[in-house]
Amino acid sequence: MTARTLDGQALAKAMQEEIRPEVAAFTAQHGRPPGLGIVLVGDNPASEVYVRNKLKAGAEIGFRADLERLPASATVSDTIALVERLNRSDLHDGILVQSPLPKAMGAGAEQRVFDVIAAEKDVDGLTPVNVGRLVQKRAILVACTPSGIIELLDREKIPIAGRHAVVIGRSDIVGKPMALLLLHRDATVTVCHSRTPDLADICRQADILVAAVGKPGLVTNDFIKPGAAVVDVGMNTVTDAAVATSLFGEGHPRLALFRLKGSVLVGDVHPEVADVAGALTPVPGGVGPLTITMLMRNTLRAAKARAGQPVG
Ligand code: GUN
């Protein structure tokens, strides 16, 4: 079997075209576009790329998207002061603090900063209020990657209710909200993590498998029930030639690309899984573009909710 490709890039584009007229209508009605403030502390190269892509997508669809930078030497108090300014701003409906914050800020810095974001502007869905609302199935703002995955499964007509969904990873930003969203859609949900014994055996029971652990190629053929839908959230930059060769094999075009560039972006799912799965998200071009589009949708939702309009 060769898995059907679940094209996140195509869905992201289609959703952007759905959002665009709504952004224009909001702008016409309120005399300003929906606004997003992105806080970037330090100079993590991966974060620079992610943030640039978010700003570009926002501007392209008609949002106001502002980058608020702080140097790597910034303190937690500096960052909190910036978030508080964005909380008060009438021009910003959404606030995103790019993770990770610099290690020098100390353990717990991220939680302290996220906790300050006004719940109604929390477009990452990470504040305690929004997580609580998600648990109770009445959230307006839900973490972008998991809500994008549900959108993808729905539009690709992959049934969720009554299916066994296995989520590998228990992060606040992907694993936990993913498990809750699948549960709310009546899946039977198992959450696996680094301490789960017999990981492959459990994953092999999955009709829907979501891998979000950050381990290149962890999910191999023996993890897959034939025909399962496999969603790869991993975004791993591989620079080790032995790892790249074990993933792609001699003659694969991605290995040739690795030899040219010295690195290759790979997911948590081994490419061989395409032989067993029924459907599979590619990396790149799967979940990544959807996450950015859901950020835009959340910003529009936050803007509408703040303006007292129904969010739809
Ligand atoms: N870093 C990597 N992905 C994300 C995300 O979705 N939100 C935030 N705030 N930081 C990230």
Supply the number of helical segments.
11
What would you call the shape? globular
Order of H and E elements: EHEHEHEHHHEHEHEEEHHEEH
The assembly state of the depicted protein chains is single chain
The overall pLDDT average reads: 97
Q: Helix- and strand-based class? A: alpha/beta
- Please give the alpha-carbon distance between the first and last residues: 39 Å
Which ligands does the model contain, each kind named once? guanine
Spans of at least 5 consecutive residues whose pLDDT stays below 50 are: none
Rg, Cα atoms, Å: 20 Å
The percentage of residues in β strands lies in 5-15%
Helical proportion, percent range:
40-55%
| Main beta-sheet annotation | 6 strands, parallel
Q: Which strand order spans the largest sheet, edge to edge or round the barrel? A: 1-11-8-7-5-6
Q: How many strand elements?
A: 11
Produce the secondary structure layout.
Elements: E1 4-5, H1 8-30, E2 35-41, H2 45-61, E3 64-70, H3 76-88, E4 94-97, H4 109-114, H5 128-135, H6 144-155, E5 164-168, H7 175-184, E6 188-192, H8 199-203, E7 208-211, E8 229-232, E9 236-238, H9 241-248, H10 253-261, E10 264-266, E11 279-280, H11 287-306
Parallel strand pairs: 1-11, 2-3, 2-4, 5-6, 5-7, 7-8, 8-11
Antiparallel strand pairs: 9-10
Helix pairs in contact: 1-11, 2-11, 6-7, 6-11, 9-10
The structure holds guanine.
What do these coordinates show?
It is globular and about 55 Å long. The model has no long low-confidence stretch (mean pLDDT 97). A six-stranded parallel sheet has the order 1-11-8-7-5-6. A three-stranded parallel sheet has the order 3-2-4, sandwiched between helices. It has a two-stranded antiparallel sheet with strand order 9-10. It is 42% helix and 15% strand. It is α/β, with parallel strands linked by helices and 312 residues long. α7 links the parallel β5 (164-168) and β6. It has eleven helices and eleven strands. The structure holds guanine (GUN). Residues 50, 96-99, 124, 144, 173, 291 line the site of guanine.
